[in-house]
Amino acid sequence: MAEAPVLTDPFTEAAERLKTLTKVMSTKAAIGQTPKELVWTLNKAKLYRYTPVLPQEQRHPVPVVLVFALMNRPYILDLRPGHSFVEYMVNKGYDLYLLDWGAPGPEDKNLTFDDYTLDYMPRAIRKLKATFGVEEFSLLGWCIGAILTTIYAALRGDEDGLRNLILLTAPLDFSDKQNLTFARWTDERYFDVDKVLATFGNMPGEMIDYGAKALKPVENYVGNYVKLWDNIDDPRMVESWHAMNTWVTDNVPLAGGAFRQLIVDLYRKDKLMRGELMIRGQRVDLSRIHANLLTVIAEDDHITPSCQSEPIMAKVSSADKELFRVRGGHIGIMAGSGASKFTWPHIDGWLAPRSK
Amino acid sequence: MAEDPVHDGKRFDPMEPWKGVRDIYLDAWGKTMVDMVNSEAYAQATGAVLDTYLTVSAPFREAVEKAMLKTLEQLAMPSRADVVSIAGRMTNIEMRLDDLDAKLDGIQRLIVQAGTAPLAEPRPARQRSKPPASKKTSSAKKAKRGKK
Q: What is the CATH number of domain A27-355?
């Protein structure tokens, strides 16, 4: 008996592949699905509490607040079920909160680090403490979120009851200009920050996205899609790519005032590490940080090289501090395939005994 | 020829040998591009392109903004500046509400503390009704002073 004509197979396969490709390129994946409730809101900022899955007596008494960057959506921390840092930490018994900055509108163009660290963060923390009756808390800041948490820890940490501080890929030291491509691009000889902000108000998300992708143009604009095509028959890979692509293409603007501070005060003048950064009239003195400190460095990070995160270890007054290096990129260490094997367990292992 | 050539359970892909070549090419291209974007010349060029765009587009943008402003005025509709101003006021009101919320939380905490305080330990102000205890304290203090 003759078998089914095999010549139709390649066409069927090609059609299926194109169908999958069209789907992942034109739709958004379901992300950020861990259940949560709104605790506090101010302007665009929101504080969420993830619904605990363990009874109170099995949970760590010290809550953890996640603070992500200003120009990306924070759901990278809760990408998809089965591969979510949030889900992992909730299952490990942490009372987990997320400070979502939202997307600034034209009316927010004057928001600065001063507002984020001395208005928004203290208010959110106050509400958390008042609502859930806790005195101490832990902060986890990632990327620009790590800058904000560092400034906050130096200015308000002791006063507000900050016990543990976790900094992920924190761009804090800007002295090594040769290793910082962003510093070269935003050099005052080439980049007129005032002219850009006079035109746009806030720094457009598309421009920030271009800047991040242009650091590795071939990898981001070509290799990423080649990788998808090579693995298009693997549903798990496609699902993972789809979720990540949904996050990568969902950029938000950066408030003009904060962008100016980032470029002028940090990238150009390195004021934070020099101890010259002034936030609403107060000098940000890193030696005023006493909280237990864990700094996580991504060894293959092209956005925040390790030289930007290491020096803070010598500046803080924390008696308990650790520097943890992990293989991976800026985002990959927390959202890549190795995150659940290396980074997340290490954070849990460090935080658990310090959350009692 | 009845069966497809299958290796290790996978269908034979005639493009497979080319993938290695492609990956080597992409890798080399990627490294070249990374070197290029890291150069001073690239920073200068992108800065010049952005500056030119901002300068050239400014008159058009201003003209559009003026025309839009006049149109909105004629239609008795709020301009962007009006909406931004209202949004700023809203945030200000939210801040005041948050301040009130903080005060209410503080009052609630005091009420709870006041309600539970007698169970935990007597408040100092109410110790007036217990003269023996205060006498003991004062005499103890006097004794200490005497020793000094």
A: 3.40.50.1820
